[in-house]
């Protein structure tokens, strides 16, 4: 596996297909639309519930089913990209995504709405797989940071304008018209078919049984979290154990045994999952903070949080170039400074006016974007070419799972509350739990920094020392 990692790291421009610069811009536009589709419907769930006479639990499936399929699909498509032509897969994915959008636009019952979201998720989950594949396959390591920065810009823009577009559209027309916006993604399909190069299909078969076990593990885990079911959690654990057995016994397992034996890759996944679990606190806790402590209406909460996403979108390309010039370690340490400062400041200034909270939140949002680029770039360099799809797909999957688990934990902590502040000057009782939790998350980032340095910085220094001795 070390040999494979070295091959990935030594990849040069001559080894790579052309058209990367064009494809990364098309990908950024695709990410804008796909990320908007993932978040737009959260705002209109109360209206969907009223239209069809549903309970809160029933209408929540509009978001839950999308998350389930999107999480599983990202790694399935990642594996398929290692074996089949990207041009074929993106065509299938975008057409299914558009079909789901059209079905939702014409839906007259909740069953059709839910079916539309299922189709959308099946199609859209090709996008995160493609977003990981294009920077790795079309850009050498020394230019990969810039490519990841551009794709991060598209993701940040989609997250920023999604709630705004949703609010404006539903104030003018029926919520079903939210399904019309993703149809714009079809405009990218001719460009993908033109600029994605023909790639030689890898030899071997796909372990569909292993893929199914992985999908079952993830689906049952997410359902266990959302439903609060120990039975589903036990089912997820059982499926995971069988999946591990399958990896050990299959001739060509769904996830390569060599990939899972690579310490650097596994530690990279671990660090990415830990960072993501903390990062989810910002979009999850901040709206509750602004509603419970600052007493803001939902519309104003969105306006407080949007500037952070806009700044991230503006800086995405610049940060990518910074990673190429100064290295991933520099970007990671910059991200740590921003995120640690953000959580510490939120802990200190809980209860301040909304403008102050929004200003601090912007620093954290930018820090998340720094962190995403640094870790994606670092992990991609440890994966051999024939495992790029599934290797980066597993990273996306770990991010989804860690975020889902973390938000469940944060929700339990918020329900439990806090009887005393850990910072003595906090006097607002409702703010105690926010202040304490933000403080814990700031300290957690210090622990992750130590882990990162022990794995990547020490490894880099050891390699540099060996080069000097040679």
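^ structure tokens above, recovered residues below v
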């Amino acid at each position: 596996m070390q040999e494979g990692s070295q091959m990935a790291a030594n990849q040069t421009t001559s080894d790579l297909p052309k058209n990367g610069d064009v494809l990364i811009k098309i990908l950024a536009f695709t990410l804008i639309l796909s990320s908007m589709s993932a978040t737009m419907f959260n705002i209109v769930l109360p209206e969907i519930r009223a239209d069809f006479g549903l309970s809160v639990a029933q209408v929540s499936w509009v978001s839950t089913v999308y998350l389930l399929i999107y999480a599983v699909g990202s790694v399935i498509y990642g594996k398929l990209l290692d074996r089949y032509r990207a041009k074929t897969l993106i065509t299938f994915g975008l057409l299914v995504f558009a079909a789901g959008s059209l079905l939702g636009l014409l839906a007259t019952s909740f069953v059709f709405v839910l079916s539309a979201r299922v189709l959308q998720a099946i199609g859209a989950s090709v996008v995160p797989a493609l977003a990981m594949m294009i920077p790795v396959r079309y850009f050498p390591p020394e230019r990969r940071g810039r490519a990841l920065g551009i794709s991060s810009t598209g993701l940040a823009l989609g997250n920023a304008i999604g709630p705004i577009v949703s609010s404006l559209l539903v104030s003018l027309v029926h919520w079903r018209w939210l399904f019309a916006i993703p149809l714009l993604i079809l405009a990218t399909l001719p460009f993908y078919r033109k600029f994605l190069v023909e790639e030689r299909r890898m030899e071997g078969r796909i372990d569909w049984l292993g893929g199914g076990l992985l999908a079952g593990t993830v689906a049952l885990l997410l359902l266990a979290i959302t439903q609060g079911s120990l039975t589903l959690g036990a089912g997820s654990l059982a499926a995971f154990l069988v999946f591990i057995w399958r990896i050990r016994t299959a001739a060509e397992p769904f996830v390569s045994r060599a990939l899972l034996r690579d310490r650097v890759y596994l530690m990279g996944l671990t660090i990415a999952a830990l960072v993501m679990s903390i990062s989810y606190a910002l979009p999850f806790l901040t709206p509750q903070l602004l509603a419970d402590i600052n007493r803001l209406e939902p519309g104003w909460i969105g306006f407080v949080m949007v500037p952070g996403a806009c700044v991230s979108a503006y800086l995405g390309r610049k940060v990518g170039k910074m990673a190429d010039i100064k290295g991933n370690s520099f970007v990671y340490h910059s991200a740590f400074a921003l995120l640690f400062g953000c959580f510490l400041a939120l802990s200190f200034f809980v209860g301040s006016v909304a403008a102050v909270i929004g200003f601090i939140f912007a620093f954290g949002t930018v820090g998340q974007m720094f962190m995403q680029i640094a870790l994606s770039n670092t992990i991609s360099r440890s994966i051999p070419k024939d495992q790029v799809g599934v290797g980066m797909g597993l990273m996306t999957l770990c991010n989804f799972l860690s975020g889902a688990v973390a938000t469940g934990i944060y929700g339990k902590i918020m329900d439990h509350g806090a009887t005393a502040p850990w910072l003595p000057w906090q006097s607002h009782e409702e703010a105690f739990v926010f202040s304490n939790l933000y403080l814990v998350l700031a300290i957690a980032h210090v622990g992750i920094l130590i882990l990162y340095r022990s794995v990547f910085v020490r490894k880099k220094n050891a390699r540099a020392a060996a080069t000097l001795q040679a």
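Residues 1-14 have pLDDT under 50 and may be disordered.
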